[in-house]
Predict the 3D structure of the following.
Amino acid sequence: MIPMRLSSIFKNRWMAVLWAGGILWFAYDFAAPSGDAAGANAEAPTDVTGATITDEDAKQFQQAVNNL
């Protein structure tokens, strides 16, 4: 998975910084929002059955949570 031994990465400070930067870049690239679903192309939120969640449903859920 890693093209070099871990013991050789941390012998050099700059190699360790480069390795850590690669890990952070991978994490950002994996977890960052893609931006494709933003704006007018965004889909309406749905529940587990696939039905669209209305504002009334959201208010009922908020009241149920507040009553706990």
Q: What stands out?
A: The mean pLDDT is 81. The helical segments are 6-9, 13-31, 55-66. The chain is about 50% helix and 0% strand. The first helix runs from residue 6 to 9.
